[in-house]
Amino acid sequence: MFSQFETWYRDRHEYARKWKDRTGGKVFGCFCSYVPEEILVAANILPVRVLGSHEPQDVTEQHLFGMFCPFCRDVLAQGLKGRYEYLDGITLAQACIHLRQAYRAWEENVEHPFSYYLPHPMHVASPHAVPYLKEELKNFRKAVEEHTGVTLTDEDLDRGIRILNENRAAMHDLYELRKGPAPKVSGLEAMWVTVSSTWIDKEEHTAEIRRVLAEIDGRDKDFGEGTRLMFVGSENDDTDFLGMVEMVGATVVVDDHCTGTRYFWNQTPEMDDRIEAIAKRYVERPACPAKDHVVRTRFPHILKLAQEYDVAGVILIQQKFCDPHETDMVPLRSFLEENGFPCLFLEFDVTVPMGQFRIRVEAFLEMLMEEDLF
Amino acid sequence: MAKEFWRWKEYNWQDENLNWRDGKVITGGVDVGSVSSQAVVMVDGELFAFSNMRTGSDSPNSALNAMNWALENTGMTLDHFDFIVGTGYGRVNVPFADKAITEIACHARGGNYMYGPTVRTILDMGGQDCKAILCDERGKVTNFLMNDKCAAGTGRGMEVFADLLGVSIEDVGDLSLDVDEEPPPVSSTCVVFAKSEAAGLLREGWSQSRVLAAYCSAMAHRVFTLLERVGVSPDFAITGGIAKNIGVVSRIERELNLTALKPKHDTQIAGALGAALFGKALVEKGKGRKNKAVA
Hints:
The complex is a heterodimer. Chain A is an alpha/beta fold. Chain A is built from 15 helices and 8 strands. In chain A, strands 2-1-3-4 form a 4-stranded parallel beta sheet, with helices on both faces.
């Protein structure tokens, strides 16, 4: 039922190349989920999120500080190894310094016709955040217009906003199915959907979700037997790890990842000023911990998800050396545990020690359940 | 052949006063660890037999060898069991087990049996990893933490040091305490680095005792930080092979300012013991084998 998403997840580059051949359009690589894709889609550009490949590599040492996170390392390796050679442009929305360094090193070492560093407010709770981002987005829009030779109209922007919002709505509908006691969607399937949504043509992706949603009532299996878990962390596209967690007796029902709910959770509102609407959307979306201060919106949001999706426990996934998430992990763990959600903390690298992690996950599940043993 | 100083005692034990044929529920626990394997046989919740041996390269064989050794000359066979639980790194490779349970849960349960229901913190110092486990009065895990990424603070590290210094592993603890003054600890993050550091200290003229004291102290400090992270509440106990090393145990006690409970059994069998006890609980819940052979 979800095989199309799995194929998209596995064959991301092949998909993008074919999309270019088929449409004649441009493809932009997006570093970070704060890139305003509405503007790119309005310009008929395919935005693809640049992620790693989870393979050991030896090409980034000279470009990145030793204590930068494995994710930014893995991302840069993809560029240096030529795996995104089809990109017409790259753009980074500022969130963390590690990924910015990966972007800069990529920009210096890999040729693309377009590159844009988009400053992005770090203090999203400030009343100045939306006006600030609005001005930055105007500049970004202009740069995209100059590069494509097309002036974007309000109609173009409306189309970009609609296409993104429809995809977000479809993913919300899919996540709704994970709330009940017998979810019809596994965590692994949901990860194929959400992660692939970051690089597949959104209209095509939305249509595929709608096709699945139309058929899913007739599905003869569910994932109600598993212990309900939530994943929390930065980027996470590690299907091997998630697959292992579900194989040993869990069902992952919700997440707070920038390749998951943080990416699609809120809609771009309808406003006369489209650029302001887009700015508002990215300022008000569930925050990355890099931006979630001084007012903390992230903790109550995560708690609400844990409660609404009725999880028994939370796996806190920390990319090694990821400073923003590392800063949050200790208070977040206390906060969740005080609210009745036991946590398992795991530190991720480019590859993970599956045997060691399996013991911890199984022991965590035994701790949550297994009353039969006593 | 050169003496293998790391080699610890492999043995089996049986309670000769217990007639297993009178027992109603027979359960087994097999703990296939990265370094050692144990099999435990319990009759109606009483310890009847166990074995403790080195793990071979083949997990299923290690499990079978350990169980056969525990059962040696008792007349009991695998068919007499109501339930067998596998645990440890090789838990899914125990071909005759009915269920696999992690060693974290099993050490908590086994520790509860060995040390009594007052134990709340169990430190399992295993062959290649180390786990700080918090549990309730039933021996159910309430929280745990494992060491990451390296073997410092584990049995394998101690074996390496026994070999380096030419001291039998069973004597390491006592010898490490035979120092006038506690030396500064060696590197606590990596067995290989600690070993090179120790070789340097020997060349500088340090005595065996002093080097061992520096290593035991580093190991104690290493696990102390693990325990601090999970939060220690008394009573406190140690399981696994290193629990037999007084040099490490006394230094952990000193850092924690707590006395570890004294074990009633071989600390290496805690995991297998917990596994066998879980087996019994499952039999009592009607999950036992239906085709058990009559004794």
